[in-house]
Structure formats: C-alpha cells, structure tokens
Specification:
By secondary structure, the protein is an alpha+beta fold. The protein has helices spanning about 10-20, 35-55, 70-80, 95-100, and strands at about 25-30, 30-35, 60-65, 85-90. The radius of gyration is 17 Å and the shape is globular.
C-alpha cells in the first residue's frame, strides 16, 4: 500500500519532473509540433488560472472539442487538476450538446 493517494496532480508533477526532456509530439495540418512534458504541465497549470478568470467554479463542467494533440492532453490534465469536470464532446454527442443548450438532460438512446 502506498502512503500517498494516486491523484492526477501527482502524476502531472511527476511527469513534469521526470519527463522534462521527453517530447509530446502532435501531428497537425500545419506539421508536427513538439513540446516537453514540462511545457505541457506548465500549460495545464496555466489553464486553472484561465478557468478562474472565466469564473468556472470548482466542480463546474468544461467541455472540449479538441482533437488528439498536446492541447487535448493539457485539457485532460489541467481541468481535473483545477477541480473541474472535463467532458470530451465528440461527433456522437451532438444530442447532448443540443440538450445542454436547451437546459434539458439528453435521454438515453436505445439504438447504441
């Protein structure tokens, strides 16, 4: 049994410390971008300040339409570490987005 609970902020800090020289490579339409785990961690931590400035309360929900890239990794680390809930919204969740905008919860689909 470990002495410290395994929490995402611990994983993020460890990645930044041990993976400072390890690259996260994203293939984008403009070409490949490279960032170290330290840079990804710094940007994920910066995101907490942005969410505060946007007045997203702790426990609030943040949706992302981000593609699989360094930005998506930053969101998946930064949002939960900032005590918010992340919802990755994809093309199959259009009904959920419409229902959320309308203020209603989407009904489960039986054709899935």
């Amino acid at each position: 049994m470990q002495d410290v609970p395994l929490a995402l902020d611990l994983v993020l800090r460890r990645s930044m410390a041990l993976g400072a020289a390890t690259e996260v490579v994203s293939a984008e339409p403009e070409g490949r971008t490279r960032h170290s785990w330290r840079e990804v961690g710094e940007r994920a931590a910066w995101l907490a300040g942005v969410l505060d400035a946007l007045r997203v309360r702790p426990g609030g929900r943040v949706a992302t339409f981000a593609y699989n890239s360094h930005r998506h990794v930053e969101l998946h680390l930064g949002v939960p570490c900032a005590r918010r809930a992340l919802h990755a919204v994809g093309k199959y969740d259009k009904r959920a987005v419409r229902a959320q905008r309308a203020g209603a919860a989407p009904r489960p689909r039986s054709d899935r």
